[in-house]
Records
---
Amino acid sequence: MTRKQRRLTLIAAAGIVLALAAALTFSALRDTITFFVSPSELALNPPPPGKRLRIGGLVKEGSIVKEGVLVRFEVTDGAKSVPVRYQGMLPDLFREKQGVVAEGVFEEGVFQARTILAKHDETYMPREVVDALKDKGVWKHNEGAKK
Amino acid sequence: MIAELSHAALALAFALAVAQAVFSLWGAWQNDARLMAVPPLTAFGVLVFTAASFAGLTYLYVTSDFSVANVYSNSHSAKPLLYKFTGVWGNHDGSMLLWALVLAAFSALIGAFAGNLPPRLRANVLGVQGLIAAIFILFILSTSNPFLRLEIAPAQGQGLNPVLQDIGLALHPPLLYLGYVGCSVAFSFAVAALLEGRIDAAWARWVRPWTLATWLFLTLGIAMGSYWAYYELGWGGYWFWDPVENASLMPWIAATALLHSALVMEKRDALKIWTVLLALLTFSLSLLGTFLVRSGVLTSVHTFASDPTRGVFILAILIFFVGGSLALFALRVSELKVGGIFAPVSREAALLLNNLFLSAICATVFVGTLYPLMLESVTGEKISVGAPFFNATVGPLALVLVALMPAGPLLAWKRADAAGVAQKLALAAAASLAIAIGVFATNGAPLYPMIALTIGIFAVAGALTEYATRIALFRAPFAESFSRARGLPRSSLGTFFAHLGVGLSLIGIAAEGGWSVEKIASVKPGESIRIADFDLRFHEWAERQGENYRDIAAIIELRRDGILIGKLAPAKRIFVMRGQQTSEAGIRTFGLSQLYLSIGDPVADRSVALRAYWKPLVLLIWLGGVVMALGAAISLSDRRLRIGVPKSAAKKKLAAVPAE
């Protein structure tokens, strides 16, 4: 093999691996990402059933109902609220009037959460929640999500 | 007083670091031997003063001096002594000081042990190190000063975030920083080589031990962080594809690639340009990680924008080093001579393929981590890229890479016999398929974990095959195999362990992903649930008082076939001072598998939500990481890699090794 042929082999190999990576990345970006919506957006534009979503807002005061391992609560952004159903263990920082992000599907008016996101810090507020609350004017600047 | 002295020490360290950068780079430029003799001394000085500053902050923490803002915000006098120490780096300012300290230690080590480096190369390397140190210390002094006093000293501190009060997390940042900052050494060597416009196999021989050490610390740091998340967060997960985790994974992947390409460069004088580029990229990714974690950009793009000082400073550092080094690379790359050639089937080609895959994996992690940030800042649309994305992209690429891995060390340099290697690996392939079919027959299996498991077993069997080939096991008398095993170069042994570790980790990941059992139930005292072949009976509630917390534990009796084999106590730990609580998982290990219990909040009727997992072979995930790190340590102890070995001796040794 000449030097040129070797170089072509190398470039071909690199091309194949990178094309594979790019193809995987683009198809995964289409299929696996989840969009974030606020309760108001959800009320306005109900998604197709079965589509994975994230919703976020504050846990509505007095809305938490526990039946064994089944938990029901409402997520609110001040304007609208969404009932959430979740079977499992809540994270340590899950409280009334605290920020929360839930991932799951919206079916028949109820958000079936598969995951409730936990963070490691009580001053932490998921940034999507901050933005959603800001949109509705509920967010007070000095509540500070700084870490 | 101590705070002011420490602050002054840090300022002195800054001045010395500036001097180090100026003297060495100017000296190397002018080829002035007297100037170039200065940097090892200043490097030592920077270390002394940074260490003094760090010791000062530690003293302030241990004596609970709440007149210092940083101590007030992150400590409490009732905190256990251990966490007063670790609290020093459990916050932004202190962790940046630790970063600077580790950097100073690396520079001083280069200064002390690089006596046999050509003086100009050494001066340039220490010059770049001095520049990095100066800029980071300036960053601390101007935006993250941990020594600021409060006007009125409060009587008590706010305490450390309870989640951080754990030995695993206490040790995780220093290890990770040793790795992050260690990447700066290869970076400085690469910049120095570009400044001189000259690079050869000896360069790779100097860079490789530093990269190995870096890789060792990164591997241990990541493994420890992962295990910590597993037992502390109460979710039973070990990797969340969180941007903060990805920030440490990317430098690790790049450093892995660098280790392999530097090998080609050292042994065959090839892949020089690529190796230099990788060295630049590895440190750039460490800086990117520091930026992501420290700027607050992940918590909120808006927080970042509204309090920009720190974030913009780190971003400027990032742009300066990444942009500067890549520009230098573009200018000088044509001066670097292209090295040796090799056939498409050869050890070099295999290592190149390894680099291709690792780069592709690193790029997908990069895209998955930064795409949501980019999208949000451009369109305002909010998305999350999580495990499904990475399983679909990193997963297949990594599986192909690991499946090819066993062939690598069996291939000869220059030109190799593909059929011969395939023949050697046939037994390993057959064995892994047989085991996989056995697992399938007895346990059934989802497809993806099944493939991963097969490849993992193949990697382990392949590593063993390679070792057996090297010592001619069963082909020669045992006495000869034994003596060959003793004479095997440490770097070969290191390769064996590192590759073995990759296989073990993959088996653990596959088993945990495919065959874990999970059960959640609400139980009252006296009630039982069943998981795998265990009966778990909720016996009673118990309270325990800790030094600065209170545990409310559910005592769970563990029975197998009706026989009591132990008790587990998953708990909620309440930290009264901060009004916070954490989860304490109850874990019982059976061989390499674990039974993992965690509980929800106690309910008024004395019941509790109990979450139980049976995780088969889960310990292999981290054990594999430890075995990989062990491989790096063994390789580091190789005589040929010792930093003090003179060039000629190293050459002779090199020639004596058969090109196998």
---
Amino acid sequence: MPINLVKGQKIDLTKGNPNLSKILVGLGWDVKKYDGGYDFDLDASAFLTGANGKVASDADFIFYHNLKHSSGAVEHTGDNLTGAGEGDDEVIRVDLKKLPANVDKVAFTVTIYDADERRQNFGQVSNAYIRIVDETSGRELIHYDLGEDFSIETAVVVGELYRHSGEWKFNAIGSGFKGGLRALCLNFGVNV
Amino acid sequence: MQAERGFRDKLSKYIDTSQPVSVDVSVSGSAVYDYSCFGVDGNNKLSDDRYMIFYNQTSSPNNELTYSQTHNGADFTVNLSSLPPAISRLVFTVSIDGPGDMSAISSHTLTLSQGGTPALTLTLSGGDFQQERAIISAEIYRKDSEWRFAAVAGGFNGGLPELLRHYGGQEAVPDSPAKPVELRKGHKVNLDKASGEIVINLNWHKGQGKRGLFSLFGNSSSGAIDLDLGCLFELKDGRKGSVQALGKHFGKLNDAPYVALDGDDRTGDVAGGENLRVNGQKISQIRRILVYTFIYEGIANWKEADGIVTVKCPGSRDIIVRLDEHDTKQGMCALAMLENVNDKTFSVEKLVQFFSGHEEMDKCYHWGLKWVYGRK
């Protein structure tokens, strides 16, 4: 049984589990129960930042056009264009031990592609979650349901891995932004 | 507070959820719209029919939900605090009866208010939709023991049956005859594809003493009311004229003007009133038809006559135009305008406009006929 987190909850990941290194970060959502309108295309991204919450360079922004970090520590496994199907919609692979020393946080976000044009927002997305799985054992460690907290936002910072006293922890952030991926990039210091 | 599609929030931020709240829904457009509020259970299923509130079931068992028709929509009164725990979600829907889809509406508004003060308003237009024929405007639902509001604004191309299937239900009243549509003044709706015979019926209360002595002397002040039904027609080729008993212009159904009047019911014996028939096969020949009634003899006692026009078209719901303004001594009343829509069907608009006679009415609607007095 994974540990189910609530918004704002922080939890140890490597403390007491020193061998944990390769994890899968799965993100899922359900969209479009109704006819009409455009398909939803939700994109998961990861921002590798310093303690100040800013990326050192644009290459630390992992998304559908930059799927793999140069360190090999973070790899986006590919874009799912429709969100169809059971299980994780997008998966980002993280190798904690490979993360460069200047990376103190890895924030995972979900944004709606072309949200303004398609007049879509997270109020039309349901059952969104993030889960962290130990890739070696296949065991689900953490599960965080985003619930009903989002409305007209077009980007969500779902959660982040962060270093604390030499260990990795996870923070269930769950905060929404308007302005989509662009707003997130500005927030994390990516040049857009 | 203006809510947009996708908006979700706790209701308690906007209203006192322990007090009744009013949910007013309306659509302006040219189709026939039905409004309903479904209470569904925790599995999103319509497990209790008594909580399907619409024109045919206007209140739930304990009046937690009530429906009342408004001039362009419906008003639901919702008492959240008294809803049974099994009802975990209220779904407010709009569905189209007959032809049309939501992309053709000019606007749709849902307003949640309390004590007459609007708290949340959702405004949508045809541009927000495509071929949906039934939509969920908004939902009010329980989540973590709080009532929340969601502006859904999504729907189903398959209309109400598909929407009901989505909630595990089926159409509530598949066999009952469709409710007639009553037009309000200035309101215009399209008939379904009008290929058959369109019957325009005028019925009224005949009053007392029709066969009594007084009527023989034309003293109808306390006697019968005789309404004559007629119409002005304008064909595509420019031909114009009238169909009415006065002057014996009974028209023809299979030849121009493709409009005919059944025999005049001057005796009032025919319970069904008077009928004009329009040949639905010839729509492409017809530009417009102005349906009117006039009082040939006697005073203009419209109130007592209480006239009602029913437009019947195979496959369409009956359309009703009620002669519900009486405050006039004028003896002529324009009832409804039928206009050709893309050679496929007619729109029907309620007029109920009074005139002193044919000529004045003709001028008002720019028909351009010459009028002389006649007798039947």
